[in-house]
Amino acid sequence: MSEVIQSLNELRRPRLLVRAARLGASLYRRDRDLAAALGGEPSHRQTLSSLLSLEESIESIRRRGNGAYSPEKHIRVLTALIAEAQIFNRLQPG
After folding, report:
1. Is the pLDDT of residue 29 over 60?
2. How far apart are CA 41 and CA 12, in angstroms?
3. How many structural domains compose the chain?
4. Band of the pLDDT at 94, cuts 50, 70, 90?
5. What are the distances in angstroms from CA 39 to CA 28, 30, 73, 76, 79?
6. What global pTM score does this model have?
7. 47-70 average pLDDT score
8. Cα angle at 13 between 88 and 56, to 5 degrees?
9. Rounded average pLDDT over 3-10
10. Which residues contact 4 (CB under 8 A, 6 or more apart)?
11. Containing structural domain, residue 19
12. Can you list the alpha helix ranges (DSSP code H) found in 1-94?
């Protein structure tokens, strides 16, 4: 799991995407938003890895200038990723 957290810390995305995702994270409801981002609810252990993998795929599409890129989906996934990382950090002992 520490590899996933390190990958999260190393993400470099456009400011506008990150700003929108951070605003969304303050309104995040796991029961509603995680299913919308991933198409279902994975186990807690899989959530961050699944979101990170999906976000990297979307970022690749964005960088290639592919017409299939959806800013809405990218923000939804980044929002879930930020919020789930915050939840994960709160659940850690110490």
Report:
1. yes
2. 26
3. 1
4. low
5. 16, 12, 12, 12, 15
6. 0.82
7. 95
8. 65
9. 77
10. 48, 49, 52
11. 2-91
12. 2-9, 15-25, 30-38, 44-64, 71-91
